[in-house]
């Protein structure tokens, strides 16, 4: 399904993963309500009613979209899954987390969207300002499409691995860093990184088994890694 608003400007699809964001999600959505044409949000297990808040808010403002529920794996897996679901829903996919807001500097900022595969936006908090890819071309195909890499502290790049982005100056993203995933950040990150290390060790074992032509063992290890199961080594 594609965006339904009639406009000569580029259409925008808001894309995010959320979990237990009921305290802040309306702040995020209110900041972009007059800037987006469609939305695709993936909920990874909210128990506080976040899902219904999003659906009710968007219905009230008559913005079409999709709320999809998926199990939590890690940041790159779930963000990439959400990004894939948003492809071809609008000209550009706007990657904005629940604990951010959209600050419009130039009301004509969409005129800057001239076909680049991705655009970086200034993301800021009380301590730092930096650019980060926050808009991805929704019409890309094949290995030109963008995905996320890294179980945590993830980054966005093309599947090909040579993606480029241009700096978009018409908007900025204040980051309040108060999202639902922040409460157990250090413990969560430690678990995610430990799982990635175990996967790398498993792939080393698979390589050794391949050299010994132990194909059944290779297949078993690769299947576990591909399914995001953490192998025991």
TrEMBL record:
Residue stretches making up the Glycosyltransferase 2-like domain: 18-102
Domain of life per record: Bacteria
Keywords assigned by UniProt, alphabetized: Transferase
SUPFAM superfamilies: Nucleotide-diphospho-sugar transferases
Single GO MF annotation: transferase activity
Xref: PANTHER family: GLYCOSYLTRANSFERASE, POLY-BETA-1,6-N-ACETYL-D-GLUCOSAMINE SYNTHASE
Family: Belongs to the glycosyltransferase 2 family. WaaE/KdtX subfamily.
Name of the protein in question: Glycosyltransferase, group 2 domain protein
Upper lineage: Bacteria, Pseudomonadati, Pseudomonadota, Gammaproteobacteria, Pasteurellales
């Amino acid at each position: 399904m594609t965006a339904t608003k009639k406009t000569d400007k580029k259409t925008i699809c808001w894309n995010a993963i959320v979990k237990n964001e009921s305290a802040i999600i309306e702040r995020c959505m209110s900041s972009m309500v007059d800037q987006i044409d469609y939305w695709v949000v993936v909920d990874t297990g909210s128990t506080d009613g976040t899902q219904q808040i999003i659906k009710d808010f968007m219905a009230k403002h008559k913005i079409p979209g999709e709320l999809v529920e998926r199990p939590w794996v890690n940041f790159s897996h779930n963000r990439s899954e959400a990004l894939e679901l948003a492809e071809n829903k609008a000209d550009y996919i706007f990657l904005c987390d629940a604990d951010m807001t959209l600050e419009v500097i130039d009301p004509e900022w969409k005129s800057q969207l001239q076909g680049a595969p991705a655009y970086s936006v200034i993301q800021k908090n009380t301590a730092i300002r930096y650019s980060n890819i926050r808009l991805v071309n929704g019409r890309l195909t094949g290995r030109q499409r963008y995905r996320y890499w890294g179980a945590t502290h993830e980054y966005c790049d093309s599947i090909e691995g040579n993606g480029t982005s241009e700096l978009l100056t018409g908007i900025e993203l204040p980051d309040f860093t108060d999202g639902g995933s922040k409460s157990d950040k250090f413990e969560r990150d430690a678990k995610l990184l430990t799982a990635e290390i175990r996967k790398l060790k498993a792939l080393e074992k698979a390589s050794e088994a391949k050299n010994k032509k132990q194909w059944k063992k290779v297949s078993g290890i690769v299947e576990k890694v591909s399914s995001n199961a953490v192998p025991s080594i």
